[in-house]
Amino acid sequence: MEFYHNHVLSIILLTPVVGALIAVFIPRQMDNFHRIWGNLFGILGMLVALPLLWWFNPDSTQRYQFVESAEWIPSIGAKYTLGIDGISFLLIMLTVLLGAISILSAWDAIKPRKKEFYILFLLLQTGMLGVFMSLDFFLFYVFWEITLVPMYFLIGVWGSDRRLYAAIKFFLYTLAGSVLMLLAILGMYFKYHEMSGAYTFDVQTLMAATQTFPFELQKWLFWGLFFAFAIKVPMFPFHTWLPDAHTEAPTAGSVILAGVLLKMGAYGFLRFSVPMLPAATKSAVWIIGILSLIGIIYGALVCMMQKDMKKLIAYSSVSHMGFVTLGLFALNQQGIAGSVIQQINHGISTGALFLIVGVLYERRHTRLISEFGGLSTPMPNFAAIYLIITLSSLGLPLLNGFIGEFTILNGAWQVSKTWAAWGVIGIILGAAYLLWLYQRAMFGPVTNPINEHLPDLNAREYCTLIPLVLLAFWIGIYPKPLFRYLDKPVQQIVQAVNPDYYKQAPAPAASMNQLPPAPPANSASPSAASDASGNH
Amino acid sequence: MSLLDHIRDWFSFLQAVEPIRPQLLLALFGVGILLTDFLLESSQKVFNAVMAMMGVAFASIALWQINSQMHRDMLSAGKTFFADSILVDPFALFFSMIFLSAAALVILLSARYLNVEQEQHGEYYALILFATIGMITLVEGVDLVVQFIALETMAISFYVLAGFLRHDRRSNEASLKYLLLGAFSSGILAYGFSLLYGISGSTNLIEITGAIQDRSPNDPIVMLALVTVAAGLFFKVAAVPFHQWAPDVYEGAPTPITAYLSVASKAASFALLLRLFQSVFWPVRDHWQWLLGAVAVASMTVGNLAALGQKNVKRMLAYSSISHAGYVLLGLVAAGTPEGNSTGLRAVAFYLFAYAFMNFGAFAVVIILRRQGLIGDNLEDLDGLITRSPFAAVLLLIFMLSLAGIPPTAGFIGKYYIFLALIQSGHYYLAIFAAAYVVPALYYYFRVIVHAWLRPSTDAGVTLVTLGQKTALGIAGFVVLVAGIYPEPFIRLASASLFLPFPLGR
Question: How far apart, in whole angstroms, are the C-alpha atoms of residue B177 and residue B169?
């Protein structure tokens, strides 16, 4: 147990890859074995992460917990350093959950080449978990790149018609961003050496130094990192790979792509760009804010025009991730906390929406909205779950989407009322396209005779959807635990980038530096949060 | 003279030739193969391969002994022999190690290939060993004459080997093209060498370095020598604008020879380039920095852009190897800053090491596809490799990722080191440039992967992989992965072999 506690992150990180390595040596003919094995390790990956729920202490005075560190490449100063704070804790939980769910969702959908599918999926899990755990820039970069390869194959092998195009587009776009990131990382590395005489990629050490870098250099480094993260999120002009990749990927790939991979971009901003390069971040707030708003509105408008369900949900990701970056670059407690909550919510709702499209696709082998209609008659339970998820995605109070979007708009309001106004328009449009989609697919008479006898959800599909529905309700009704995990790390980020924020903040926020912290966003009920911001 | 005296003479002779014992052993086995070849039935010709393998093994052991002897004597800067014409130092040992590994791999891959081609002759293996002798001597030489002879030993062996498939028109074309252009470039190089001799009155690199140091750095004779020597070497490493031979020769030559040519010959030529540019031309590095930078940028541009459209895997790899030459030159550019930059040198050494194994592996997969009635070097021939030979397909993926510079592979660490050196030495624009070219490179490497992994197999034939081929592929893949995941020992090796100020053994 002692060993487990000390190395819990390594164990979570390596469980999937161990499963994949063993599966390599099992003959490919044993399809069923690979399927069971993959699911087993998907669930095992989640189980080994569960103790974190008890062990992780949101009020800890340490910035990172469960830190493990070992020499890796001493010649260049790269180390194997893992550690998590509240933000990465939530994202890791999301990753293991969605990982297990997507693997389960692929049970029937993936027919040929099962062995490779499960191996690649498990490798992808390790890559994503590594991104969220690394506290060494070099290690982070390695994991960041490792995720590309399995995702490329998931799209390229098991995708639909234009899969090759979508797969290579995804790979090239992301790679173009990441090589620039590599140069920016090296820039920090050498500047730090110039200042202190030591070579290191250690994030904590670098963070202390990068904040004092001259503004001009910070700007260069910021934009170097920006492209990698913005492409991944994806922010408005860099989003074109996303509809293709989402549409062509198999269901499991879409779920994990929307649910986790996109979060890597936002996580990069949160973990590196913003706290490490505060001066440059501040100078870029308006550009990024406006790009986010364009993404929100543009993504929503494009959704209105889609004929393909999956493409619609893909564009809705552009819109929803726009909220994430909007909140993030509001650079205040509500904005950033809301941004993280929105990331989790987007993972839950959009992941579930892709599962729902997958359910329909497995039955009809088409995703065209016009092929469906009146499905609530043959599939009532499906209709109920779909409705809940739709409402959660469009931000109905008491469901998870509302909490994130509300807190983000609250944060945005403090920066600019115009931002908040445009954000609200995005929410309205979001409700419009999601409800319209639901209406066209589910209500009215059954127009297509093939749809009359579609079977309702089976047990496996319930297993994939029900946990997400429960989470949607839980976060919607009682989000306090989530905010509690975020308090400390968000506070540290805001402190780094926007130290004045807490000085002007109202009374509850003034006691920020004394434990236990009670920042405005801490309050569970949205009305309390709005009171706090109203004091400005 | 009694028998005892004779024996004593022999021993002292053996002692005296210890520094070149690897070459002598290779020569011994090479000549042995030529002799025993006559005694072998055509079905027993594989024995030649075994013998060549033994030669490489013995040479490796001799190399290892020299290495440990040097460690014992604490000679980190090496030691010169034979009237200062041979220098055994970590640099030479590092490169010799690459050559011998490559030679072993090429022999493993050749046995079946030659059977399929029905050209199983002893000369083939003998020539491989002779080429290896040339390379090892080339990296040990610190005398213009030794270097030139060694270079020609290597080159002449390759001229013959490139045309070894006598009945194949492409192979003949490759050989002739290589011979003509090679002779031309050797001429230019010899002209440069003669100028160096004229400047200093000596063929010894140390003396020449001294003579050039005494002259003004803008001396036109020195410039002329620099440009001619550089041009001759650019030809050998296939850097733009002296690259035109590479695609044709790579495509036409027997594939194992292409692999050997692209890996070992290139590494040897780079070693010579390093030797000369780090010693003789070091005083004029202000000038060659620009020259190499321009050539590197041109090589990456031409190599990457031309590779995009290739349908033949060997041609594609030829263009990609041109762009890799560009990356290696960038490392040298970084090293050539006024105060020198040892990260650049380390980058070059590590890159060449990684490149040797990853490029070799890529060619090895093409070799595996060769069978009766299928040349196997078209992209379509790779279709559905994942179902025909999952082992080869997985390794192909590793090699392609490594060539593209995606972690966790050796190629990534190599590229990373190049970027590192460029940024450290202040060449920011070159760094951005080099990084940007990773993207098109990934596109053409992944075209190979698309065919091998994503296209269904159109070919009814069976892809047989022999044990020798599996071993060779496995070793190359293993090294590429290990050097990518845990590069520390390899980086140490590379750092020990190349450092500044570059010593010449005194």
Answer: 12
pLDDT at B322: 93
Distance CA B127, CA A495 (A): 69
Q: Report how far apart, in Å, the C-alpha atoms of B349 and of each of A393, A432, B303 are.
A: 54, 60, 21
Query: B194: helix, coil or strand?
Result: helix
Residue A332 has pLDDT above 50, yes or no: yes
**With an 8 Å Cβ cutoff, is B487 touching chain A?**
yes
Query: If contacts are CB pairs under 8 Å, which of residues 335-394 in chain B contact chain A?
Result: 386, 390
The top-scoring range by mean pLDDT among A210-214, B2-6, B299-303, B450-454 is B299-303
Nearest CA in chain A to B421: A186
Q: How far apart, in whole angstroms, are the C-alpha atoms of residue A330 and residue A311?
A: 29
Helix (H) or strand (E) holding A362: helix A333-364
| Predicted structure pTM score | 0.90
* ipTM (interface predicted TM): 0.89
Q: Testing the interface with B: which of A76, A120, A180 to mutate, by most B Cβ within 10 A?
A: A76
Residue A37: both structure tokens together? 């094995």
Map residue A82 onto helix, strand or coil. strand
Q: How far apart are CA B369 and CA B391, in angstroms?
A: 13
| Separation of alpha carbons B396 and B480, rounded Å | 11
Q: Which two tokens mark B444?
A: 């053409």
Q: What's the CA gap between A318 and A242, in Å, rounded?
A: 8
Placement of tokens 């990465």 in the chain: A88
Q: What amino acid is encoded at B7 in this protein?
A: I
- DSSP class of residue A377 equals T
* Cβ within 8 Å, pair A182-B386: no
The mean pLDDT value of chain A amounts to 87
Q: Which residue is closest to A140 within chain B, CA to CA?
A: B407
Distance CA A161, CA A336 (A): 39
